[in-house]
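ARCHIVE CARD
Drawer: 12
Card no.: 0347
Subject: one protein chain, sequence and derived structure
Cross-reference: see card 0346
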Amino acid sequence: QVRLVESGGGLVQAGESLRLSCAASGSIFSLNAMAWYRQAPGKERELVAAFMIRGGTYYADSVKGRFTISRDNAKNTLYLQMNTLKPEDTAMYYCAQLPYWGRGTQVTVSS
């Protein structure tokens, strides 16, 4: 069993930054294959950024150059640094190591 707890969301203005954290506990094999997803109201959940199983990272085109995924293996914590936020980034952000999901943290960006 894996437990994932997100934090760091909030209400910011366009152009500002936030850093999300995801604390992982339980039967964590590694922080590989961990990812951030988001879901905006009325839209499907989408993959935002991820550490790939075989190495490397993935970013959705909409966040490339603005978001950075990172991790602290010693703390079993995953991060998502989000810079130059836009109103369209407003969503619930979820940490995942499939098939496990956190409960999410809300990010709201005002224009």
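Annotation on reverse: The longest strand covers residues 18-26. The mean pLDDT is 93.
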